[in-house]
Write a structure and sequence with these properties.
Elements (H helix, E strand, L loop, with lengths): L23 E4 L5 E4 L9 E2 L6 E2 L4 E4 L8 E2 L4 E10 L5 E9 L20 H10 L12 H4 L10 E6 L8 H8 L1 H12 L6 E7 L3 H11 L5 E6 L8 H9 L14 E5 H13 L5 E7 L7 E6 L4 H7 L10 E4 L6 E2 L13 E5 L17 H5 L6 H9 L3 H6 L10 H5 L6 H17 L1
Parallel strand pairs: 1-14, 9-10, 9-12, 10-11, 13-17
Antiparallel strand pairs: 2-8, 3-5, 4-7, 5-6, 7-8, 13-14, 15-16, 15-17
Helix pairs in contact: 4-7, 10-13
One iron/sulfur cluster binds next to α9.
Amino acid sequence: MGVLTFFGGIHPYDGKDISKDKEIVDYLPKGECVYPLSQHIGTPAVPIVKKGDEVLVGQKIAEAGGFVSANIHSGVSGTVKAIETRMTVSGNKVNSIIIDNDGKFTEMDFSKNIKPLESMYREDVKEAIKEAGIVGMGGAGFPTHVKLSPKNENDIDTIIVNGAECEPYLTSDYRRMIETPGKLIAGLQIVVNLFDNAKGIIAVEDNKPDAIRLLKEMTADIDNITVNAVKTKYPQGAERQLIFANTGREINSSMLPADAGCIVHNVDTIIAIYNAIIEGRPLYERIVTVTGDAVEDTANFSVRLGTNIRELIDAVGGFNIKDPAKIISGGPMMGKALFTLDAPIVKGSSALLCFREDVVSDLTPSNCIRCGRCVEVCPGRVMPNRLADMAEHGDIDGFFKYEGMECCECGCCSYVCPAKRHLTQIISSTRKQVLADRKR
Ligand code: SF4
Ligand code: SF4
């Protein structure tokens, strides 16, 4: 069988060598920690602490504000200093709980949360996942307990762990896979056992042969889990592309993975499920890769949620240039450019990338030369050049007709365009406008 893959895609410089050999190191924050109440898709969480309250590591400080929402837990011990708006990586000010960190990291008694797995009903497991505040940690932030409660549970036959880590520079999932493979496999088994007809797949890009080898060895005797090598190609880790590569099933923008019998989870999400069910620990930390050519050193840190981004930059020795041209939260293709370092690490923060040059913003777009490259690489099988023209002219009917909503905003078209047109940006803003209109 050939290596599993999908239509289109690109092969950008992956930049992983500079941090892939950095073992995961615990980083304990020194300063205050900030917990935005909206760090997941859905209704914001509601604070259950007030100014002056003492809190412990792992203590629930905000409760889900609805079914599609998530609890939030403190990563430090200390005192609630304020509940006020603070800047987040999205560039918006969001109502947040501020904890004055006492530096002691006094933990709650997590053993009270642990029940023997064999005595837990499926609903107990889902409830524990919900209680632990787990959301999709690849960046999407969709509450995991909701994802695990599809309409037709018997139709779910495939749980895919997204170990592709196709965004350049990111190495946090890779480190997780080679440092704690046992937890990953056990976490996947917990999820697979929630469904009568499911099997598990760990899908890893073939640029991580050691992770593939290790996971294959460790799952050799497990009948319902397989490890698939998928082709190293961006955006291999996007949900639709991963499902197609591993099952041959296609979904479109109006479908959920569950409509194709699949549920996809990020590596760190599965580890969080393991931590919650087996160790009784809610979600209060995650792995963050700090890398790029504008920092003195690189690292894969295990970071307490709420930690100030500036602290993590300092922890790798700071910048090696006075003014880095670009700092990104997440990967270079789909991450968010940061305008301030005074924002907290949240559940979806996979990386901090610091670059000396801004190779994207410095380019001036010119007219389309009709080369067709954007069409060739588009994994959504749409025509980015036509869609961008329509979007620029406000032709929403044409945008629909040419299936603009099938764009997954992967950035491949902008990456290859010799005219340097801001195709993704233009298409994405029209998609957002359409989605906002639909909501209204
Ligand atoms: S149109 Fe959308 S899906 Fe297609 S390459 Fe561009 S960003 Fe990716
Ligand atoms: S890649 Fe750029 S120049 Fe080529 S057809 Fe697409 S929009 Fe036009």
